[in-house]
Amino acid sequence: MQLTRRAEYAIRTMLDIASNLDDQPLMSKEIAARQDIPPNFLIQIVPELRSAGLIHTVRGSGGGIYLTKKPSEISLRYIVEAIEGPIALNQCLIGEASCSRKPNCPIHEVWALAQRQMLSVLEATTLAGLVDQSQPGKRAGKTSTATDVAGKINNEVELEV
Amino acid sequence: MQLTRRAEYAIRTMLDIASNLDDQPLMSKEIAARQDIPPNFLIQIVPELRSAGLIHTVRGSGGGIYLTKKPSEISLRYIVEAIEGPIALNQCLIGEASCSRKPNCPIHEVWALAQRQMLSVLEATTLAGLVDQSQPGKRAGKTSTATDVAGKINNEVELEV
DNA sequence: CATAAAGTTTACCATTTTACTTAAGTTTAG
DNA sequence: CTAAACTTAAGTAAAATGGTAAACTTTATG
Ligand code: FES
Ligand code: FES
User: Fold this and answer.
1) Per CA to C1' distance, which residue is closest to D27?
2) Is the pLDDT of residue B55 over 50?
3) Residue B102 pLDDT class (50, 70, 90 cuts)
4) Chain A CA closest to residue B85
5) Which residues neighbour B138 within 8 Å (Cβ) at sequence distance 6 or greater?
6) Residue A80's closest CA among A20, A6, A155?
7) Greatest pairwise CA separation for chain A in angstroms
8) DSSP designation for B54
9) Which of A104, A110, A134 sits opposite B125 (nearest CB)?
10) Which chain A residue shows the shortest CA-CA distance from B36?
11) Which of A111, A154, B99, B141 qualifies as a FRET site for B13, CA 20 to 30 Å off?
């Protein structure tokens, strides 16, 4: 029931890059140092973020990492699922692999709802919002902070489970 | 990020007992058969539910299991935490074991909120509500179903994280 | 073109968790 | 006293977790 270190490190990495205002790519080693990530662990996570299409990587001397999309288009849910695969609070909530009990299981709806509530928050939170929070005034535009999200959740559209 | 089998089986067990209208204790073996739980696994889970104060057990011939509290007083959250310990979506949300990054971590609030949203659902759902749903008309009284909860969540009081 | 700086790939590793199974108790009704 | 029921304590195979390490490829630069 807990986020893995890999995913936590992935979030820190993405946030670190989003906070970088220069447009030169960042080195994995520097990110690791700034974000308290074991460097040799991070260079294992970086390729996963790349295959997920979240970052571009430049090899060779002078290379590094930069974002593929705008920070406002990258949600926490997206990052977590890039590393851990689809989020599912219970086995029976994964894709169509239904357990035999699903048809008349009274608990199923509850988990589905709990998951929707949780995903709403992770989906409404973008890197842009998080950057704004830690560097107020450095960027303009409408972004959402965690506390904004609290009031906003209830207007969210239905998310598929 | 997923419920363990132990906790899932614990929920099924509690629900099975709550659905039992006779007041004679139920045998672990019978519960296991009805709820598709490996019997030898369940007899390992039962003592945990007992130490958590959720059930009473009667030993010896004719013995079995019955609930300690009324089904309306037992929430899903309570059952899950009896088996898995405190629910925490991220390490830094466990008790006071704060990571060194917490003071200026912009992500922390987000996880805290996501967790509150999820816990609200698990806390608002009681065994009584679930029983009502699968056996309509068999019990009276005000209980809450999963779909009721959906509209109710937003009025919930603040939960500590 | 040699070299160092960067990411890539693959493999390895110890520890813990998970989901069980097994077996030897202990208690109690009948 | 004996069978029925819960209790306790091991044991176990497989997977996940959180890393580490080494060999490889690409590219800028001198
Ligand atoms: S089938 Fe999904 S919770 Fe029971
Ligand atoms: S300290 Fe809790 S998420 Fe960063």
Assistant:
1) A60
2) yes
3) confident
4) A1
5) B21, B131, B132
6) A6
7) 59
8) S
9) A110
10) A101
11) B141
